[in-house]
TrEMBL record:
Coiled coil segments of this chain: none
Organism per entry: Nakamurella alba
A biological-process GO annotation: carbohydrate metabolic process
Signal peptide: none
Name by which UniProt lists this protein: DUF4432 family protein
Lineage of producing organism: Bacteria, Bacillati, Actinomycetota, Actinomycetes, Nakamurellales
Gene Ontology molecular function: carbohydrate binding; catalytic activity
Length: 361
């Protein structure tokens, strides 16, 4: 990108200035805990982040601490689907042949995992040594996105002279005679900042060797996603795509209008790291002068999918960094790429969500 013009309209105060001018630091920005209280969202704990730099977003504590609403300069970035942010107590985990995950899919970030991602199916479970259940059946993108977190804390702290807004929690996916995986999630953003730093660690707290798959479904919707908006990534090659790509012939690099009853289009791209050794993918809206980008660790997320939901009433672009290729669970076990965690072993994921007012290439 070109020159960054993301400076907030009000200069970011230092600690003394903030204390002198405001009895409450929330006068500039902060984190507030609320509870949603209507419809299928009723009862969900939410942490509302306001940076003072034009960025605001919601952390859905009871939905794996995923990010729901996300706005930059009052423009909605995170996709708002018709499902809303469904309370996990209403989630239909095993219904519709494993596709019921789609009934609670909304927001900027929906996490997939912790032991399964991608399409569902039945796989061997003999490693859990429980004869009554020789196999386990998974639904689309696993269970973790509909599990409430144990909130460790949230607030504002000063680090090397800058104020950091933060939240931290733990999501436990466990059953008897099965997986016991723990996701430790920390979300940070600087006061006045326009970048969200997401740090995840997934650990096997059980004593059986356990498969691990992980994915972020990062969903961008209107009005940041609009006609003429560009998908930007350094793509070495496209490894796979759905049949709908050739059948529909709809561009995946520059977007047009929603299409009646369009079939989803999915691509697996092999990305080229930038000069810092990171994958950078994003969406640039030149009309609004705004951009949204993901900065990814290739060692953690070697695979990347682009998901296009192009139909009327549900228009969205999904950016999906993944630990595994599109063939999924059974194929990963077959070709040896499945991640197996022994007791106490863990995997770490560091990702940056970058919002900018500059869209020059």
């Amino acid at each position: 990108m070109g020159d960054d013009v993301s400076d907030p309209r009000v200069p970011v105060p230092d600690r003394l200035t903030l204390a002198r001018y405001a009895g409450d630091g929330a006068a500039y920005g902060g984190v507030r805990s609320v509870v949603l209280d209507d419809g299928s969202e009723r009862g969900i704990r939410v942490l509302e982040f306001r940076t003072g730099g034009g960025l605001r977003f919601d952390v859905l504590v009871d939905r794996a601490m995923d990010i729901g609403l996300a706005e930059f300069d009052d423009v909605s970035v995170g996709w708002r689907s018709a499902t809303g942010f469904v309370h996990p107590g209403l989630h239909e985990n095993a219904d519709e042949d494993g596709l019921s995950w789609l009934r609670s899919m909304s927001g900027l970030v929906v996490t997939g995992g912790l032991d399964h991602t991608l399409f569902g199916g039945e796989v061997d479970a003999s490693h859990y040594a429980y004869p009554p259940r020789p196999t386990v059946r998974h639904g689309l993108h696993g269970r973790v996105g509909n599990i409430p977190a144990r909130l460790i804390g949230y607030g504002q702290e000063w680090v090397d002279g800058r104020a950091v807004l933060w939240a931290e929690g733990e999501v436990r996916q466990a059953t008897n005679f099965g997986e016991h995986l723990v996701l430790h999630r920390r979300i940070e953003v600087d006061l006045g900042g326009t970048e969200i730093r997401l740090t995840d660690e997934v650990r096997n707290a059980g004593f059986e060797r356990t498969p691990h798959m992980f994915l972020y479904h990062v969903n961008v919707g209107w009005p940041l996603l609009d006609r003429g908006v560009r998908f930007v990534a350094d793509i070495a090659e496209t490894l796979w795509q759905t049949d709908s790509v050739a059948e529909q012939g709809i561009d995946h690099l520059v977007f047009d209008a929603p299409v009646r009853s369009a079939i989803e289009q999915v691509y697996e791209h092999r990305l080229v790291p930038d000069a810092d050794g990171r994958f950078v993918v994003g969406l640039h809206n030149d009309t609004l002068g705004l951009a949204f980008e993901l900065v990814l660790d290739p060692a953690a997320f070697p695979c990347f999918f682009e998901w296009l939901n192009l139909r009327e009433g549900a228009w969205a672009l999904g950016l999906e960094p993944s630990t595994h290729h599109v063939a999924g669970d059974a194929a990963a076990r077959e070709d040896g790429s499945m991640i197996w965690l022994e007791h106490g072993e863990s995997r770490r994921y560091d990702t940056v969500f970058r919002f900018s007012r500059s869209t020059s290439a």
